[in-house]
Design goal:
Layout: H1 2-8, H2 11-20, H3 22-32, H4 44-61, E1 81-86, H5 93-99, H6 104-110, E2 127-132
Antiparallel strand pairs: 1-2
Helix pairs in contact: 1-2, 2-3, 2-4
Amino acid sequence: MLAAKNKFGSWTLAAASYNMGMTGLAKQLERQKVENYYDILLNSETSRYVFRLMALKAIMEDPKAYGFHFREKDLYLPLQEQIFIADTTIADFADFAREFGITYKTLKFHNPWLRQNYLTVKAGKAYQIALPKKD
């Protein structure tokens, strides 16, 4: 999203491009000869998307001002994790996850930076992989 913000110059245009695609937004900006999100006519889905994001940001910054009162018991606790040091190649993350008694989905949830189904570890390198902490 930072690349879109740098390209379009504002977070609102970046958010719109996240919803409709950078190319699609760039074409609409050029076609309509505008440079500002608030001056461009977009499809209703993208228009609603950006304003919903803005509303969510305002609510999250001051929930009580908008009638949201959270009790401590309603909040999620921080995830408890342990770190596994991977200093050798992991050929298959599904197999790796099963060795730790978790699913591939859980492994990816704790490690969104893992893009492939494997991890190549070069000699002398090591990676930290977060795993859910066992009680």
